[in-house]
Design goal:
With 220 residues, the protein is α/β, with parallel strands linked by helices. Helix content is 40%, strand content 17%. The protein is built from eight helices and seven strands.
Length: 220
């Protein structure tokens, strides 16, 4: 095979086999900003009619099912608390022998406004404790992730840790909740596309989308 032939060889698609939403267990954390990863998995489970239940082996809420094209997909919400999320993820990946590049992690991001999301193939933890744990237990940062914007507190997060913690563990306002529900529908669409055409295709179509743009398109 010559160099021209090699350059024309298509890159292997990155297709998720396990989708993990990060968050904290216990009812007091339900619907908080830091738990939007859990909300995303719940939205996927509902859309795909996958039943979720506690799996002690994986230390989390787990479910699996088949997508329309027949591929097996698994959903996980770690119950180890955010700082130890990697334990549950590693348990599931070891059991099913899933490589890190086939694990999509969904979590909250203060650097993005509500109504925006970002999908990437790899990257650092960016100060997120759940991602720090995930990278540590998977032994690499080369796995796809989808960050969902939750906005920032009014005070500077770099200067006031207490306000930041209160913000991420706080609940969305009623107005914000409406945006989040619409955002989660867009998240489901983006992940469904990644299962069909790969993470990179989904990145190209959804990383610049916002809820405002979506609403404008609907009105046309």
């Amino acid at each position: 095979m010559n160099n021209t032939q090699k350059s024309e060889t298509p890159a292997e698609l990155v297709i998720p086999q396990l989708i993990v939403g990060l968050g904290n267990p216990e009812p007091k954390y339900d619907r908080t900003r830091h738990n939007i990863g859990f909300n995303a998995v719940d939205a996927l489970a509902q859309a795909w009619q996958i039943s979720l239940s506690e799996n002690r082996k994986f230390q989390g809420i787990f479910g699996e099912g088949n997508r329309p094209r027949g591929q097996k997909i698994r959903l996980l919400k770690p119950l180890t608390y955010m700082n130890l999320s990697g334990q549950a993820i590693r348990a599931a990946t070891d059991w099913y022998k899933i490589p890190p590049q086939s694990v999509l992690i969904v979590y909250d991001d203060m650097d993005l406004p509500i109504g925006k999301m970002r999908m990437r193939l790899a990257g650092s933890a960016g100060g997120h404790n759940g991602m720090k744990s995930t990278i540590s237990h998977l032994g690499t940062d080369k796995f796809p992730r989808l960050r969902i914007g939750i906005g920032k507190p009014q005070s500077d997060p770099a200067k006031n840790d207490k306000d930041t913690i209160s913000f991420v563990l706080g609940k969305f306002s009623s107005e914000e909740s409406q945006l989040v529900e619409k955002m989660l529908k867009l998240v489901v669409e983006a992940i469904e596309l990644s299962l069909q055409q790969g993470i990179e295709k989904s990145m190209s179509l959804y990383n610049n989308r916002t809820i405002i743009e979506t609403n404008a398109e609907t009105k046309r």
